[in-house]
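Reposting from the mailing list since nobody answered there.

I have sequence plus structure tokens for a pair of proteins and want to know whether others read the tokens the same way I do. The first protein:
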Amino acid sequence: MGIDEYGGGQTAQSDVLVVTTNDVPGHQVQQVIGEVFGLTVRSRHIGSQIGAGLKSLVGGELRGLTKTLVETRNQAMERLVEQARARGANAVLMFRFDVTEAADVGTEVCAYGTAVVIAPIP
């Protein structure tokens, strides 16, 4: 299972469960592996900035920026899942995103959480 179109949950491509909770109902944590993260920085191109500026005058969703942010979040989450899998985890608990401006030229998106090995409670 993997990341769905909007950056959350699981789809049929990833074997790593990613949740925002501290535990998974019906499962126990067998091993805490530690913090994992996925990071990406995206620059803004002048066309999107001008379009967003004009759109903000009349209101409404900035669809181009929304699409870019979804893609960026998905990439960060994919990197988090890759790191968790490489370290032997089958789940990431307490998953979060952190978004910051990167020197006024782009946006840094960091997906992070705690990699663990979980198993169903017998």
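The second protein, same order (residues first, tokens after):
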Amino acid sequence: MPVIFGIFFDAFNMLSQILQVLIIVMVVLSLLFSFNVISGSNTFLLNLYQGINRLLDPILNPIRKLLPNTGGMDFSPLVLLLVLELIRNALIRYAGNYL
């Protein structure tokens, strides 16, 4: 297996894990705000949610355009998590062919 592939895989894996954590935090905060578990006046959590949302919007917006309108539910984070996992599994299989 070429060394450059190992470096690429490690970088993708790290970025994928960071994105997964950000997506989960964003979804949990969104649900907590939606069900009024956390007040909208909590500026720290509101700023955290908005910051994560700004980071992920460029990635999630193209997915949102492809998905049908489901009302209040946004399935784009779930689709992104699935796509990241599919790419990761494909890279693992590709690496397995060269071991």
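Reply #1 (J.P.):
I read it the same way you do. The first helix runs from residue 3 to 34.
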